Amino acid sequence: MNVHQEIAAVKSPPPLSPEVASESRRPRPAPGQEAPAIQPKLTVEHLNAWYGQNHALHDVNLVVPPRSVTAAIGPSGCGKSTFLRCLNRMHELIPGARAEGTLRIDGKDLLGRDVDPVTLRRRVGMVFQRPNPFPTMSIRDNVAAGLKLNRVPGDHAEIVERTLRQAALWDEVKDRLGASALSLSGGQQQRLCIARALAVQPEVLLMDEPASALDPIATAKIEDLIHELKERYTIVIVTHNMQQAGRVSDQTAFFYMGDLVEVGPTEKIFTNPSEKRTEDYVTGKFG
Ligand SMILES: Nc1ncnc2c1ncn2[C@@H]1O[C@H](COP(=O)(O)OP(=O)(O)O)[C@@H](O)[C@H]1O
Ligand SMILES: [Mg+2]
Q: Nearest bound ligand to CA 208?
């Protein structure tokens, strides 16, 4: 079963509001991608990104199905992090940086003037390479930080427990929620950051090399967690570790020097890619 069939089998999407339905066109799949059977969660069309004069992403086209994991791979400096930051509009926070193109979530334009980037970032959460818990806050307050920021009413204790369970950290911290976040190991801190991202109930989770600073056991825990999270969330993960991409993702996108060279089912990208550059990279001829 390919990823699209798998997803279609799990759940059909809720009916579109007339506003969204009228706005959504059939997205153009990137080379190597099949036409999606269901409404994609994210649609990227003709995305270009710059840092001043440096044209860092060239006409990227990509469709991300809901409740799936997409891995972005490629050598250092090829634009993976830039791509991820465009998806929740963090790219535009960098002085001199800009992006053009069409980005849609559930068919609705993300780059439109009427879209509030703060609201968008609540729907599209991000986890970074180095665990970055708020150092002066307790474990509990770290998880609740986004709720307070977004003025979410109600019982934060209940949400804190639920998200810590989702992040597979609850059993390890339930007796010391008031302790400093810095008292946790690196792997626990990263799961805390995932819990913090999940607490505001995003729909999409972006992860930029989330395990690259962790030991193999902590890495395995993060990978297991990604498997569980994709039941509910749409995940885009950057990884320089090809074995990891193979283990966690449904589709893989290979970037090289600012181009999205090829995207397709992960197994195909690793065993039978269409492009020579992809093959050379996944077989370790360069990196
Ligand atoms: N904050 C930044 N300011 C200026 N240039 C940047 C910045 N971040 C990345 N770049 C440039 O954009 C290109 C892509 O970088 P990046 O997206 O970080 O690649 P990757 O994540 O694949 O290693 C590189 O040429 C890099 O030098
Ligand atoms: Mg990067």
A: 2
The pLDDT of 152-157, averaged and rounded, is 88
**Residue 49 Cβ contacting ligand 1 at under 6 Å:** no
**What's 258's DSSP letter?**
T
Q: In which region does residue 229 sit, left (phi positive, over 0), alpha (psi from -120 to 50) or beta (all else)?
A: alpha
The rounded mean pLDDT for the chain is: 89
Rounded to whole angstroms, the Cα distance separating 224 from 208 reads 17
* 248-282 tens-digit pLDDT: 999 999 999 999 999 999 999 999 999 999 999 99
Structural domain including 155 reads 3-282
- For residue 16, what is the domain's CATH number? 3.40.50.300
The span from the first CA to the last CA of the chain, in angstroms, equals 31
pLDDT tens for residues 39-75?
999 999 999 999 999 999 999 999 999 999 999 999 9
Tokens representing 260 are: 């999205």
Distance 237 CA to ligand 2 centre (A): 11
Q: Are 247 and 35 in contact (CB under 8 A)?
A: no
Q: Mapping DSSP to helix (H, G, I), strand (E, B) and coil, where does residue 180 land?
A: strand
Query: Ligand 1, atom 26: nearest CA belongs to which residue?
Result: 77
The rounded distance, in Å, linking the Cα atoms of 121 and 62 is: 20
Amino acid at 67: R
In a domain, 287, yes or no: no
Q: How many structural domains is the chain composed of?
A: 1
What is the per-residue pLDDT across 163-182, written as a single tens digit (0 to 9) for each? 999 999 999 999 999 999 99
Judged against a pLDDT cut of 90, whether residue 247 lies above it is answered with yes
